[in-house]
Amino acid sequence: MPTTLKSALTPLALACGLAASAGVHAGPLAEMSAEAKDAYREGLIWATYATSESLDSFALDVEVEGNTATLEGEVESVIERRLAERIALGTEGIDKVVNRIRVEPDLVIVAATLAPQRSFARMVGDAAITAKIDSLLLWNEYTDGLDINVETVDGKVTLTGVADTRNSRKMADRLARAVAGVREVDNRLSIDENAEGQVAVADDGDGVMSDSWISAKVRSTLRYAGDISDYDIHVEAEDGTVMLSGQVDSDRERRLAIELAQGVRGVQSVDARGLTAS
């Protein structure tokens, strides 16, 4: 089924359609056979992907057996991979996700032409916010390796877990607030000075902080920030020094761009002489 047609259908209709194609009746969930329930949940997860502006361009496969969903396919970045997993975990009856989705940064995708359903867009938008904050925490030298859980409901972000210093707690809050779409942050992080943060290996397959890794993460960090017009910012990295050039809308945006770039793991210094404010 073409992506554009999938996006025009309701997720419930898609779920029922998939169940019907498996030869089972999609009646009330409690009255379904185990096979019907699996097919229904597969359809619901797949349909949510189809109505997501972040995922509907990718060919993703879903297989449900009991309370376990297995995901396969290819996406462009770790953000989409995490988002797909969170959507599956948010489906009623799914307690475990086996995520076999591969990250292919050079994947060529076709943009969706129809907007997602509003009710599902809200849920998917929250999951996207959570995935972006998770990534920023992982990439930042003050928060990587810390046990921080992120939950988002209607744009309100709740941070729970443990920070090792007041500075890392403050940075986690700062990173969460920087993400586009965040309306409020409830920072419930406790501070345990005996908790030693350790470098976490980025799960996009590149654990080496090369200049290409650094520049990619700085670009993504600036792109996720809601208060920065990153379209005119050019990022280069050489021997750990990040060069920012281009133009932003204000001095405040310029300072925020520098601050966020400085926090990325592996960045030794930031040269923003080429970045101007209009």
TrEMBL record:
<feature type="domain" description="BON">
    <location>
        <begin position="37"/>
        <end position="105"/>
    </location>
</feature>
<dbReference type="InterPro" id="IPR014004">
    <property type="entry name" value="Transpt-assoc_nodulatn_dom_bac"/>
</dbReference>
<protein>
    <submittedName>
        <fullName>BON domain-containing protein</fullName>
    </submittedName>
</protein>
<dbReference type="InterPro" id="IPR051686">
    <property type="entry name" value="Lipoprotein_DolP"/>
</dbReference>
<keyword id="KW-0732">Signal</keyword>
<feature type="domain" description="BON">
    <location>
        <begin position="210"/>
        <end position="278"/>
    </location>
</feature>
<dbReference type="Pfam" id="PF04972">
    <property type="entry name" value="BON"/>
</dbReference>
<feature type="domain" description="BON">
    <location>
        <begin position="125"/>
        <end position="193"/>
    </location>
</feature>
<feature type="signal peptide">
    <location>
        <begin position="1"/>
        <end position="26"/>
    </location>
</feature>
<dbReference type="InterPro" id="IPR007055">
    <property type="entry name" value="BON_dom"/>
</dbReference>
